[in-house]
TrEMBL record:
Provenance organism: Micromonospora rosaria
Keywords noted in UniProt: Membrane, Transmembrane, Transmembrane helix
Region (Disordered): 1-23
Protein name: DUF4190 domain-containing protein
Residue ranges crossing the lipid bilayer per the database entry: 31-59, 85-109
């Protein structure tokens, strides 16, 4: 097959076998993206750790299945986006926890310790 008269021929691709499945988007890739988005949105409230962790575990399975399918499972872009969102959600969870600990320590340090006795008490 040539692209135009006088040009070099394009590499010949062998025809697909009739029993080969059609390439389809992985449903796990969509789930990873959705869970990553939920993890990002709920990350500052510390609730994002669960969906983000599930998204990362599911992403690992989806990558394994996509590799084993030999190219018939697509959705790598959705998978990458979902993983990035999940990691961002986990970072937000970590920032929220660190901020809460710092706030708690500062609040505890400002609180008076022991009993506040009257000035005429020994």
């Amino acid at each position: 097959m040539t692209t135009a008269p006088g040009q070099v021929s394009v590499g010949h691709q062998p025809p697909r076998h009739p029993l080969d499945p059609e390439p389809v988007r992985s449903t796990k890739a969509r789930a990873v993206f959705a869970l990553g988005l939920i993890g990002l949105l709920t990350g500052p409230f510390v609730g994002g750790v669960v969906p983000a962790t599930v998204a990362l575990a599911l992403a690992r399975q989806a990558r394994r299945e996509a590799y084993a399918s030999g190219g018939f499972l697509t959705g790598a872009a959705w998978l990458r986006r979902g993983e990035r969102l999940a990691w961002a959600g986990l970072v937000l969870v970590a920032v929220s926890v660190v901020a809460a600990v710092i706030f708690g320590v500062v609040h505890l340090a400002e609180a008076p310790t022991g009993h506040d006795f009257a000035p005429n008490m020994d």
